[in-house]
């Protein structure tokens, strides 16, 4: 598939970092792991992947700003453009030898996400999207699933773990969703969950307590695949609220109604 110059830059950065992650994943038992917070780990692989991605992006687009999970925010000369990067989403999966993890890179221009890449090196699945150009997984164009009834749907979510708040509120949300759907899944990597919604593998997704790097690339993937994304109040401030819900137009609405009823 022919890619734009921008997507080529992003894809090359993701795949180069993905090679490093694949090597470390093969040696996962030998990784030196430090505790970043309760239930949230960071490894040498995380930091190395971020270093690779930043180096590749800076070389191709010098002066752009950055928002990165490990390094935080960096304001470049070009304040209109900002890379939003998660070098390893699904770190806990990675450290337990579970092949559900990914690299997520998005580009924001004047506050609008214009391109996104999500790459799972363990499965060699590359998700790409650029505003107005559609969404793809490797060479296959993506469309969100077309189901209209929650009873037919598989919905993904993120379960708050140790150190996170609002466990009881989430459990009530999940109880109400479980009563209406075919299945609920928790994969452990929000960026991949969103990519799976874009690919039609999941019919919908919701989660709270996320960061911009967890969501940015997935947001444009879903929109370019014909889906709908919002916060849990149907607004567009996902980055500020840390909340997200996604699906096709009908399922997105029904999922939000169910969650708000909790």
Total beta-strand segments: 15
SS content category = alpha+beta
Q: How many DSSP H or I helices?
A: 8
Mean model confidence by pLDDT: 94
Order of helices and strands: HEEHEEEHEEEEEEHEHEHEHEH
Helix fraction?
Answer: 25-40%
In short:
The protein is α+β, with helices and mostly antiparallel strands and 262 residues long. It is 36% helix and 29% strand. The longest helix has 22 residues, at 5-26.
What does this entry look like structurally?
36% of the residues lie in helices and 29% in strands. The chain has helices at 5-26, 44-60, 91-95, 167-178, 190-198, 212-224, 238-241, 249-260, and strands spanning 33-37, 40-43, 64-68, 72-74, 78-89, 102-109, 112-120, 125-130, 135-137, 140-141, 154-157, 183-185, 204-207, 228-230, 244-247. Helix 1 (5-26) packs antiparallel against helix 2, helix 4 (167-178) crosses helix 8 and helix 5 runs parallel beside helix 6 (212-224). The protein is globular.
Descriptors:
alpha+beta, five-stranded mixed beta sheet, 262 residues, globular
